[in-house]
Structures are given as C-alpha cells and as structure tokens.
Prior knowledge:
CATH class of the largest domain: Mainly Beta
Number of strands: 39
CATH topology of the largest domain: Neuraminidase
Largest sheet: 12 strands, mixed
CATH superfamily of the largest domain: TolB, C-terminal domain
Number of domains: 2
Radius of gyration: 25 Å
Number of helices: 2
Oligomer: single chain
Strand content: 35-45%
Structural class: mainly beta
Strand order of the largest sheet: 6-5-4-3-29-30-31-2-28-27-26-25
Helix content: under 10%
Distance between the termini: 69 Å
Bound molecules: calcium ion
Amino acid sequence: MKLHHLTLSLLLLGIFSHETGLSADSGGIAATTADTAAGQPVDNPFPESIAKGKVRLRLQAVTSGLVAPNWGTALANDPDHLYVGDQNGALWRIDLVTGEKEVFLDLSSRLVSLGLSGADSYDERGFLGFAFHPQFAENGLLYTYTSEPADQSSDFSTIPAGSSPNHRSVIRELQLALASPIQSPAVILSERIVFTVDQPQFNHNGGALNFGPDNMLYIAFGDGGGADDRDGQEFIGGPMIGHGPNGNGQNPANPLGSLLRIDPSGNNSGNGKYGIPSDNPFVGSGTTLAETYAYGFRNPFRFSFDSQTGTLIVADVGQNKIEEVDIVQAGGNYGWGVKEGSFRFDPNGGDAGFITDGTVAGNFIDPVIQYDHDEGTAIIGGFMYRGKTISGLQDRYLFGDVAKTGKGDGRIFYSDGTSILELDLTDRDQPGFWVLGFGQDTDGELYALGNTTGMPFGTTGTVYKLIPNASFDSGFLDIPAVSVALDENTRKVYRARLQVVPNSDPLRLEVISAEELAERLRDDQFTYDQTTGQLILPFVDTSGGSSQVSTYAATLERIPDLPQLTFELKQVTLVK
Ligand SMILES: [Ca+2]
Ligand SMILES: [Ca+2]
Ligand SMILES: [Ca+2]
C-alpha cells in the first residue's frame, strides 16, 4: 500500500512538472497499475487553494437577455458575429460590434420540457451543443445536440427491457440556405437525424460537438447520469438503470461515457446514416464501439480543439471531489468511474461514492490538471487562447467552474498545463454569475457565458468578452471604458486614449482624446511615481448635458512582469 501511495505521488509530480503549454505530447500520463488496493478516503485532495494569477482583465458585457448560454463559436465568413447556443433551444447570432442579437435558429420545440420540478428549476438537458461544418460556406451544414423525448426507439440504448429512458440525445444535421451576407434567421432547407442515444437519467449528457482539424465530427457523451455510474443506487425517480454493474464510463461498447468520432458524410455505420472513419482506434475490435475515440468520461460537458496545434482538450465534470482537464489521445481510457481525477473512485454500493488514495488495476490516462471541490462544483471547459489582445493568456487554456459554492459564484481559470490560476478581474472581484460556457470568435478572442440563476429559464443570460485593461497599438495606448461613480445615483462611463509623447520619457503620456471629452487636453500635469509605479492623469467630465465641468483623476499602475506599456486602470477617484 505504501508503495502504491508513493507511485501515485510521483505521478502527480510528473504531471505538474511540464513546463510548456497544453500540447499533445504533454498529455496525461498513462498510469498503469497492476493491481488494486482500496486505500483510505481522501478528504482534501489538494490542500492549496487556487490563487489569482497575474493576468488581469475585464469582462465586458456584449449582449444580455439570453437564457442559459453554454457555447459560442464563429463562422470564418461572418467574423463580426458570435453564434451562441442557449440551453432552452435558441441558437443566437450576436453582432459583436453593436451587441444586437437575434434568434438564428430555434430548436426549442424539439426539446423535452425543461425543469426537473417545472418552470424555473434545474436541468442538464436541452440544446447542449452545435458545430458548423468546416465547409459551411459551401454546404450550409450545421450539426446539433438536443435532449428530446424518448418517444421512439434509439440507435443506441442501455435501457433494460421493461424500463424507459429519461429522454434521448439526438444528433441532427441541418442544411441551411446559403446567402451572402448570411441569412438570419436561418432557413432550413432539409434536415436528418444522424443518430440517437437513449439517456437513462436527466443529467451528465455531455453534448459538445466539434469538428477536428481532420474534418471529422467529435461528440461527447456523459455516463448517462445519476450518481456513481452504477445500477441500483437510489436516484431521482427510483433506482438507477442503464449503467450496468460496472458503469458506462468503463464500458466502451456503448456511446455513454465516451468521446465519439464520426464522418457525417459517410454511411458505413450501423444505421447507415454516417461513417465510421477507418482510422478510428477501435475499428475491428469487436467489443468496443467503433465510433469510440476515447472513453472513461463522466460528463465531458465541453471540449475544444486548440486552433493552433489541434490538441483535443476535454473538461470532464467530476462527482464529489475532483474536476479535471484531459488531453485526449486516440484510444485513451480517462478513468471514470473507477477513477475520479487521478484518484481511485469507490462507488460505495448504494451509498455515495468517494475517492481514496488506493490504486486501480488498468491503463488510465490521468488529467493534466485537476482541482477539488473546495474550489468549485463543476468544471466548464473553454479554449486555448490564440487571440492577440491579451498577451498574458497566450498559450494558456481558459476555462471555468460553474460556481464555487453552488450559489452563482462562478469562476474563470487559466492554465499553462501545469498549474491553475484564477483570472484577476479588474472590474469586479468575481464574475458574479453562473459560468455556463465559453465562446471563441474568428480572431481567437474569448467570451464567458453565464446567467444569474443557473437555470435554463429567465432572461439573465449574458455574453461577456474578455478584454485587456489596456492595449498598445501604433503609438496609442487604449484604456477601456471605466465606470465612475459621480455621486450616489449617477455613474458615467469614460474611455481614454493616450499617446506616447515623442522624444520624452516613455512613461510620460498625453491624453489626446476620450469618447466623452469635448476638447483635446494638452499640457496637463501628469505625475509618475517611480516608487509605486503609479501614473496619475486627469479626466475631464463634459458629458451629461451639464455645464458644470468636473475633473477626475485616473490612477494607472504598471503591471509587473508584463511587457512595458501594458497598463491597467487601477482605480478612478474624484479629486475635485
Ligand atoms: Ca482543497
Ligand atoms: Ca478522468
Ligand atoms: Ca454508490
């Protein structure tokens, strides 16, 4: 037992010793153990809490009034829009310049009735994923993942005879009318179901769809739901069914708990409606579903491909203790439900499962990064940052957690593949919403999606863009808008644009314009304190129809360890 414990510790050290970003060859270490030892329960797997890192930025609301947005992506031929999937069935098309939004496609009538206890209650079902075909501009094809009534038999089912599924997952192909500019709302020319999967319980549906750089469609399925991924345990509505005695995660003979890879233009699958690529890792195995690309997942709710390297990154939601990020390799077994994160998982019969410091016989790929439930409740996968405006996020994987304590206190993290840090938001202490998903535009810039209820109801869904505190371009330092409290009732938003004064100390800046400044300012007194790194400069308020002019001071602080001329607006104070 001691030896096993030591082995696990060394593996963990190995995991955390990578120095480069997330990449295919820095992927999880296949932890092969020859035998099983039960071990002791682990109460606090990671005693250290996640600290805020040096990357400081702002969340700028692009648009609001959505329901429960969970995924955002863009089309190469429509770069000014972000397409955002909403759990209630809407696919929104959001103008990134004006913030205007419209329902591009409405799938709500196809969904099961959402809300476990009726309106305004929790649910994990809904419109959970979509992917435009890589050649959408030529073929108009869109793929969707929806939770629909199980009113007919499905292509795949683990439900025993005499029992009924909770619902079924439907992968659908829609052919949309092509137009330039893009026609919105979309016009569906034709559609077909690619395949369907019965879902034993309401939860753990996965749902993310993405085309890989190989132009194949990857689809994530959770373990079927309930808890502990075993039959028999009491769950909502009665004893669990549809998981078998050993769970779906470790049973790649069905799609549940697996990441599938298919060719939607082929026809050599069981139902003849899609293709199974000949280079899929389990083709010809006879026991493993040939669609399987990797397995051993619990609820891989979100995954993405690194747009630069093609690395496939899955965020797998854990059970009671561990949230994890996996670098996915073809044929890999990611452990659930005999492991939760890098720990042995004990399903504990009919009682709640738990992790131990024991070992499990088998060949498992452990997470590249993981955190425990002192830090959150469910990981929400995001993207490798490949944008241009936030230098500190380069080569970092951005992701989040739905809520630290399950009360709307979502978090946003980033990782270099070795450690996890929390974004330091300068316009707020914490996001202040349930983090439900992320989005990526054609420039590689990222968006956080969430709402203030955690439910697929209401109109608090909001899309936030991650924006830098300041950017330096062509001799101009752009400082984003800042909200200034004028008195108890009034707030005004200012934006500053600064220019480096030629032939001067590079830290002497001159205000040449601000959106709400009527006149240019010159010869104002700027002071720079070498000791504190603070630059004091004035703003002038000429807005609001008032003839009174008020003067405000902005305090800028140079961020340590970032390239020179990167600033953040630290605080704005009324100096009067
Ligand atoms: Ca902890
Ligand atoms: Ca795992
Ligand atoms: Ca159990």
